[in-house]
């Protein structure tokens, strides 16, 4: 098959899966896009090998981690930073704690904005720093909004998990349980997994399709009281929701 038609087929399949409410079978995709069945399977196989789609048993194909990374790469550029920057600064000022914004890059969290409060300790989460997603509140907040198939693609076995001084999830099942709790609660929380003496809460920023585009987090000293942590978590969730709404208004009309 000539390279140009193959690329066109792959892009059309990506577009169809992005618009779909759930996984689509190869047969349904081929029929909808008028692509021969054998060609559809070959293109999907190549896309799966590169992480752009994942196969969900008995259901079909869905977008994979690599496809979402393209979305996150776009979101973390100028539009996201222009929208989130002032809101992160206001959040840090209001709470008196350091705040940061991060995006998911594969199995890592990449920090893209940090707002520091005078007198608070310097964090390791400087702009450009990467940390294992499953060990951070920011990462878990975003992971909690991925599909089961996407989690399987990122963490096919416990060997894919990072062990830091016997902290963090020991198995993929444990990680899944924690992510389910985070999704139900609306925010993630970690204590001393990243920095000794510090804890964090984080909430995801979702794009128009419900995928995690970024995460808003605030870090506070160990010993902070539960009422204060709950107040921080609520403000973090509100800030994430405000970023979502403002990004949506900046989207060009369909």
UniProtKB/TrEMBL annotation:
Coiled coil: none
Span of domain HTH iclR-type: 4-65
Sorted UniProt keywords: DNA-binding, Transcription, Transcription regulation
Keyword Translocase listed: no
Domain IclR-ED: from-to ranges: 66-249
Matching Pfam families: HTH_IclR, IclR_C
UniProt-listed PROSITE patterns: HTH_ICLR, ICLR_ED
Keyword Transferase: no
GO molecular function: DNA binding; DNA-binding transcription factor activity
Cross-referenced SMART domains: HTH_ICLR
GO terms of biological process kind: negative regulation of DNA-templated transcription
PANTHER family: HELIX-TURN-HELIX TRANSCRIPTIONAL REGULATOR, ICLR FAMILY, HTH-TYPE TRANSCRIPTIONAL REPRESSOR ALLR
Name recorded for this polypeptide: Putative IclR family transcriptional regulator
Organism this protein belongs to: Kineosphaera limosa NBRC 100340
């Amino acid at each position: 098959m000539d390279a140009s038609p193959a690329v066109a087929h792959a892009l059309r399949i990506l577009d169809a899966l992005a618009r779909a409410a759930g996984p689509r079978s190869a047969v349904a995709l081929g029929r909808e896009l008028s692509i021969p069945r054998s060609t559809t399977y070959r293109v999907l196989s190549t896309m799966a090998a590169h992480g752009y789609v994942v196969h969900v048993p008995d259901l079909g194909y869905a977008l994979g981690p690599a496809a979402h990374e393209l979305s996150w790469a776009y979101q973390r550029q100028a539009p996201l930073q222009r929208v989130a920057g002032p809101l992160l600064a206001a959040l840090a000022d209001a709470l008196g704690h350091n705040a940061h914004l991060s995006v998911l890059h594969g199995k890592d969290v990449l920090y893209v904005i940090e707002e520091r409060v005078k007198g608070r300790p310097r964090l390791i989460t400087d702009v450009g720093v990467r940390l294992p997603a499953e060990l951070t509140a920011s990462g878990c907040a975003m992971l909690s909004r991925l599909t089961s198939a996407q989690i399987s693609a990122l963490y096919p076995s416990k060997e894919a998990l990072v062990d830091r001084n016997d902290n963090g999830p020991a198995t993929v099942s444990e990680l899944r349980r924690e992510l389910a709790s985070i999704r139900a609660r609306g925010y993630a929380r970690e204590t001393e997994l990243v920095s000794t003496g510090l804890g964090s809460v984080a909430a995801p920023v979702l794009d128009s399709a419900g995928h995690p585009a970024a995460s808003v987090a605030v870090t506070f000293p160990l010993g902070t009281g539960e009422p204060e942590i709950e107040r921080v978590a609520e403000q973090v969730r509100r800030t994430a929701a405000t970023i979502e709404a403002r990004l949506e208004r900046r989207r060009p009309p369909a």
